[in-house]
Amino acid sequence: MALNIGIIGAGIGGLTAAIALRQKGHSAHLIERATELGEVGAAVSLWPNALAALDRLGLEEHVRAQGHWEEDGALRRPSGDPYWMFNNRNLIILRPSLQQVLLHATGQDLPLTLGSRCTGVRTLSDRPTVFLDDMTTHEYDLVIGADGLRSRVRAAIAPEDRSASYSGSTAWRAVVHAPGLVPTAWLTVGRGLHFLAAPLPDDDVYWSPVVRIPVSEVEAIDDQLEFVRRCFGTWHSPIPELLEATEGDACFATPVYFRPPPTWLYRGRVVLIGDAAHPMTPDLGQGACQAIEDAVVLADCLTPNRSIEDSLADFTSRRLRRIRGIVREARFLGKLNSSTSRFCELARLSMFKITPSSYSERHLEGISGRGAFEAQMS
User: Fold this and answer.
1) I want to staple 13 with a disulfide (CB 3.0 to 4.6 A). Which of 63, 169, 288, 291 is the partner?
2) How many Å separate Cα 362 from the centre of its chain?
């Protein structure tokens, strides 16, 4: 039986959910607080697990056409010497480009309400009610909270939950036109800092350093780009060249927040996906990937001749263990890479020198491989 589903949040997870649900014959209504759909102009990594999920929707090739496919990667020291060379296998794509592919795939007839903020959700009946800040209400068979880190939906159904925690680190992001400077992606780690750079189409480069710093100090920085230059200006080439080529207003800071691994994904007939359910640090590059997985697996669980409650229980059984492991590992890597202790430096060096590359690649495949996604599908 077709369901009438309200999706709060029209980011990557919300748009993917709308596409997947409509392909399964359900009705979807997207509600977004922004007055227009325009993601921040940073980039995301889409690993094979996310591409496999998008392939289920017939979108993989459309998304690939908008990004840069990576085969090789490197983890380096600040001097430029490699810790570890590895098979990267992921797509780097600008968020606005990904969002436009998803928005186009939803269809022109998708009910979409912009400029409306969810102020609450009531779950006392079989049809949860969504309250908006324009004093209107909407009833649905199911509500999906895809409204990000500071989810109003989560706050409504789990008021006892604490707010997400600051990780202790802040990421800076920028896209710069830099022909030939970064032919392949790499991550440089050392002194409690790390710096990621990756090529994009049309000779653009995405760069993103992470610095361990109190969030109050981030708010007090007058010149974000100059701060990044002070932190990384003596690191290996082409980091100084990338920073020099970047315009000041192209660089912005994003404090990194997270929650502990989740223990639940739904309450009644309200389910959370993406950062609303499991915000994680960016150290595995799986934030957007897991939001996409959530959306596609959830749609697969909402099958005819089964109650919504049974479908949501199935969704939890397929997703929760995997999500918990990824959130936990991302946090571990974030702590390891941002530590300034000599012990952690030696541990990081030992991890990459002693661990056989075959084991590391199998482990990475278990997180980001196509089979890791397909194993969740019926």
Assistant:
1) 291
2) 22
Q: What CATH number corresponds to the domain at position 123?
A: 3.50.50.60
Residues 187 and 272 in one domain: no
Total of domains in the chain: 2
64 within 8 A of 91, measured Cβ to Cβ: yes
DSSP H or E run through 86: strand 82-94
CB 163 within 8 A of CB 258: no
- Could you please report the per-residue DSSP string of 163-203? PPEEEEEEEEEEEEE-TTT-SS-EEEEETTEEEEEEE-GGG
Q: What is the mean pLDDT of residues 13-34?
A: 96
- At residue 40, the 3 state secondary structure works out as coil
Respond yes or no on whether the N-terminal peptide bond of residue 209 is cis (omega within 30° of 0).
no
Statement to judge: residues 174 and 153 lie in one domain: no
CB 9 within 8 A of CB 290: no
Would you call 36 helix, strand, or coil by DSSP?
A: coil
Mean pLDDT of the chain: 92
Same domain, 203 and 129: no
Q: Read off the tokens for 178.
A: 């830099």
Instruction: Count Cβ atoms below 10 Å from residue 6 Cβ, excluding itself.
Output: 26
Which residue shows structure tokens 């229980």?
Answer: 313
pLDDT tens readout for residues 295-346: 999 999 999 889 999 999 999 999 999 999 999 999 998 888 787 777 777 7
CA terminus-to-terminus distance, the chain: 18
Q: Which residue has the tokens 């056409």?
A: 65
* Whether residue 135 has pLDDT greater than 80: yes
Phi and psi at residue 158, to the nearest 5°:
-140, 65
| DSSP one-letter code for 249 | G
pLDDT at 124 over 90: no
Give the residue numbers spanning the domain of 111: 4-164+258-374
Q: How far is CA 316 from CA 153, 301, 369, in A?
A: 18, 10, 21
Distance CA(300)–CA(298), nearest Å, equals 5
- Apex 372 CA angle, 296 and 260, nearest 5: 80
The answer to whether 68 and 153 have CB atoms below 8 angstroms apart is: no
Provide CB contacts within 8 A for 313, sequence distance 6+: none
Q: Are 348 and 337 in contact (CB under 8 A)?
A: yes
Cis ω for the linkage preceding 78 (within 30 of 0): no
